[in-house]
Design a protein that fits this description.
heterodimer, A: alpha/beta, 6-stranded mixed sheet, 11 helices, 10 strands, 40% helix, B: mainly alpha, two-stranded antiparallel sheet, two-stranded antiparallel ribbon, 15 helices, globular
């Protein structure tokens, strides 16, 4: 037990035997996988493989029917709500870019900054210099420093995706979940996004869900292939793309 | 100091406050000192009508705070307004004392008429002005808190929330219509005599109430601005724009909604409390679902999410209503419906949105002129 506990606390994310079904349809079926600290992991799989449901389980939006989901080896994610999980340090980027359109780019980051989140804290909150520094730092990372005063609604699609990643960074989470970050991006933007994510992965654990194979190639990280709600294969992209079963269900099509 | 105040009010807000100040000075002076024969004279009946509009404007502000900034479309804010009104009405009833038709020093007339032996428990304390004023904000606030707690915790949003707010005000209307409820049933509360010793029929009291309404409107506006400009206000807008994003960043969205909904309900209660002594009656008709919907139309017409627009809409639409119900009584409901359709289709940001667009068109033209003038000077 003691050794198991030690093993667990070393992991950032530990999923074991997770199953979720909606009206008889098994979205996740005995899914298990582990993310180590500082690791970046790419998740691929055909539509309906359970990628989004998996993210929903990790962030507290969906409760699994059975299974264990632990964060940092000690927090039971199946018992917490979205806000507490975010506070623990799990940030999530949606598939469709979701930013606060009628706020400026800067205010989007302000709202995401790690800090107190209670009603009366925010009612009387004052901006501090520390905050301003942190915001500038994030804006530099996501290359939007010169657009800080722009309304988020006026950003291009790719810029919105970066802004959303910036909002995750401002939250300063230990684990980032990123859902299809390059969907709808131009080739140049895709390459820039890969660079950005690699930069972020230096001091965060990152889980990226993506369809775009060349992008996953660019990331050059360990890949987990999902199929029908469970893990089909795991390894480097070269290894999994050589796997017969993977070719059958996904790459071959 | 002035800079901070200007930041708090905003340019359009400053204009609004200046207009309110002007109205606070002009109307009483015109009523008291200008010859009734002069076209600049304002008769007392009009003072009361203006006072009423100011209360509607406060109600509109409270709706804009939840709808315009947090995306909660409440179609039941009339209920909070009416509850504030009833709290005030109960105090005014107790103030009548033995001057009622039946001369009972404790029981209001309608209770004597229904052969009630003693005052129901919830009428106790309302003889005290301060207690009644507390209830004016606490009762609507408590209802909003309980209602909001249940609705927001279960994540009821959008149309479903709007529908249950309608149901809430409708249920209250039916309840208040019942004599057994102890609020005067169908007739409501009326025949008020005085408040804090001031005769409600006296000219000076009416002007006093009018001025109080202006002060309350200005105060409500500044409170709303302060909330909207704070970081909490930014979170509210974030909830309106992308609720689940706000949640995943770590904000408890339901707490924020609950806060703003409760504050807004209290504000609506104050509006109702100021309304009742001016119109002299409160009855269950104030809970009618149509009233709440009408108030939402004011906000839409003025410009949702602008606060100043809510005030303009609240006063403007009611001016139109008074005119039309007088001149062409059959037309009013069609005009109101038509107004909502036109606003929704052609001016989604209301009157203020139109002004804004017009101003933006003007500015580039001005700049071009200026540049031209400078070029000429150089030449």
């Amino acid at each position: 037990m003691n050794t198991l506990h030690k093993e667990l606390t070393r992991t950032v994310l530990y999923l074991d035997g997770i199953s979720v079904s909606f009206d008889g349809f098994k979205a996740l079926n005995d899914l298990s996988f582990v993310v180590e600290p500082g690791e970046m992991r790419a998740i691929i799989g055909p539509n309906g493989a359970g990628k989004t449901t998996m993210m929903d389980v990790i962030t507290g939006k969906t409760r699994p029917d059975v299974g264990t989901a632990l964060f940092a080896g000690q927090h039971d994610l199946t018992k917490l709500d979205e806000a507490s999980i975010a506070e623990l340090g799990i940030g999530r980027k949606f598939q469709r870019p979701t930013v606060f359109e009628s706020h400026t780019v800067r205010d989007n980051i302000v709202l995401s900054l790690a800090g107190k989140r209670r009603v009366f804290d925010t009612l009387f909150a004052r901006s501090t210099e520390d905050e301003a520094d942190k915001i500038d730092q994030v804006l530099d990372t996501i290359r939007l420093a010169d657009r800080a005063g722009m309304m988020a609604a006026d950003l291009s699609h790719g810029q919105k995706q970066w802004l959303e990643i910036g909002m995750l960074l401002a939250q300063d989470p230990s684990l980032l979940l990123v859902d299809e970050p390059v969907a709808g991006m131009t080739d140049a933007e895709t390459v820039q996004t890969a660079t950005l994510l690699k930069e972020i992965a230096k001091d965060h654990s990152v889980v990226v869900v993506e369809h775009d194979m060349s992008f996953v190639q660019d990331l050059g990280v360990m890949v987990t292939v999902l199929h029908e709600g469970s893990v089909l294969a795991e390894g480097s992209l070269d290894r999994v793309s050589a796997d017969e079963r993977v070719i059958d269900v996904y790459l071959g099509r | 100091m002035t800079g901070r105040f200007l930041r708090l009010t905003g340019t359009s807000g400053l204009i609004l406050l200046a207009c309110l100040l002007a109205a606070a000075v002009y109307i009483p002076v015109a009523n008291q000192y200008i010859d009734p024969a002069s076209p600049f004279h304002v008769n007392t009946a009009s003072v009361v009508v203006f006072g009423k509009y100011l209360c509607f404007a406060i109600l509109a502000l409270s709706i804009d705070l939840v709808w315009g900034y947090c995306g909660i479309l409440s179609l039941g804010h009339g209920a909070f307004f009416a509850l504030g009104g009833y709290a005030m009405g109960m105090h005014l009833m107790r103030e009548i004392g033995s001057r009622g038709v039946y001369g009972n020093p404790i029981l209001p007339d309608f209770m004597v008429f229904l052969n009630w032996e003693k005052l129901p428990w919830f009428w106790h304390g309302f003889d005290q002005f301060w207690f009644a004023m507390g209830m004016v904000v606490l009762v609507p606030g408590a209802l909003a808190f309980i209602f909001g707690f249940l609705a927001f915790r279960s994540r009821v949003t959008g149309v479903y929330l709007s529908i249950i707010t309608q149901a809430m005000t409708f249920a209250l209307m039916l309840a208040f219509f019942r004599n057994e409820m102890g609020f005067g049933g169908n007739n409501g509360l009326t025949d008020f005599k005085d408040v804090l010793g001031f005769d409600l029929q006296a000219n000076s009291t009416r002007i006093g109430l009018y001025l109080l309404s202006i002060g309350a409107l200005a105060g409500a506006f500044l409170i709303c601005r302060a909330i909207v400009l704070s970081r909490l206000g930014k979170v509210l807008i974030a909830v309106r724009d992308a609720e689940s994003r706000t949640r995943f960043i770590g904000y408890r969205v339901e707490h924020y909604k609950l806060f703003v909904f409760t504050v807004s309900a209290m504000m609506a209660g104050v509006a109702g409390a100021l309304y009742v002594p001016q119109v002299g009656i409160i009855n269950p008709g104030e809970f009618a679902p149509a009233n709440s919907i009408e108030a939402v139309v004011w906000v839409a017409v003025g410009g949702r999410g602008t606060l100043v627009g809510a005030v303009i809409g609240g006063i403007g639409v009611n001016l139109g209503k008074s005119y039309l119900t007088g001149a062409l009584p059959e037309v009013w409901l069609f005009a109101l419906g038509g107004l909502f359709v036109v606003v929704t289709l052609f001016m989604p940001k209301g009157i203020l949105g139109l002004l804004d667009r017009w101003r933006r068109k003007q500015i580039p033209a001005d700049k071009a002129e200026q540049a031209g003038a400078e070029a000429e000077e150089r030449a």
